[in-house]
Amino acid sequence: MDEARRAQMQKRNRRVAGGAFAVVFGMVGVSFAAVPLYDLFCRVTGFGGTPMIGQRAPETPGEFVVTVRFNANTQPQLPWRFEPAQPAVQLRVGEEALGFYRARNLADRPATGISTYNVTPEVVGKYFHKVACFCFEEQTLAPGQEVDMPLAFWVDPRIAEDPNTRGIRTITVNYTFHRSLHDAERSGALANAGPHVGRREAPTTTR
């Protein structure tokens, strides 16, 4: 084989190898990008009951009235008592409201938890707007420490215009506290969470 042909084949082999590596790295990149892209999709559309984030309530509330119920769950491995401070609130669509959850560390040592949340029915996720909350941030409580955790939110008036949601009068906010970020990720609870760009976290109040 002459030198020119050998050089041509080497060049072709390098090109094929480079293409193969590009495909492999591209597939890896897509796999890593899939989660944040899906998270962004959920935050923008409210898919899967993921509440909308970072939008201001309208200046004038609507006449449609909804009841927002508060539900609390705690992972068994987390030694906390976690519960809503009130069972429910009523508000007009477009009106900002405030609810509170309460957490207490029942252990004799500090314990750290992280909360995830969604709303049900899932179809109302795109109309439920969270202004401030305590979600997706680790919270460490000292032994016996009890804190109040506020949630500020509003419901989009367009919920009353959508044929799929205009008959809904009750929305349930579901919070679950996990022992750690790893536990939350392992359970799949953070699948729709994402980085939540633009969120404004509310402070907790020690009791």
Summarize the structure.
With 207 residues, the chain is α+β, with helices and mostly antiparallel strands. It contains two helices and twelve strands; from the N terminus they run H-E-E-E-E-E-E-E-E-E-E-H-E-E. The radius of gyration is 24 Å and the shape is flat.
Task: Write up what this structure looks like.
There is one protein chain. The protein is an alpha+beta fold and 207 residues long. It contains two helices and twelve strands. The chain has helices at 3-45, 181-186; strands spanning 52-53, 65-74, 80-84, 88-92, 97-105, 111-120, 128-133, 138-141, 146-155, 170-178, 200-201, 205-206.
Overall pLDDT metric: 75
H and E order: HEEEEEEEEEEHEE
Domain tally: 1
Beta-strand segment tally: 12
Q: What low-confidence regions span 5 or more consecutive residues with pLDDT below 50?
A: 19-49, 192-203
Number of helices: 2
CATH evolutionary superfamily: Ctag/Cox11
> CATH class, anyone?
Mainly Beta
State the main characteristics.
207 residues, alpha+beta, Ctag/Cox11 (Pfam 04442), seven-stranded mixed sheet, five-stranded mixed sheet, 36% strand
Outline the secondary-structure elements.
Elements: H1 3-45, E1 52-53, E2 65-74, E3 80-84, E4 88-92, E5 97-105, E6 111-120, E7 128-133, E8 138-141, E9 146-155, E10 170-178, H2 181-186, E11 200-201, E12 205-206
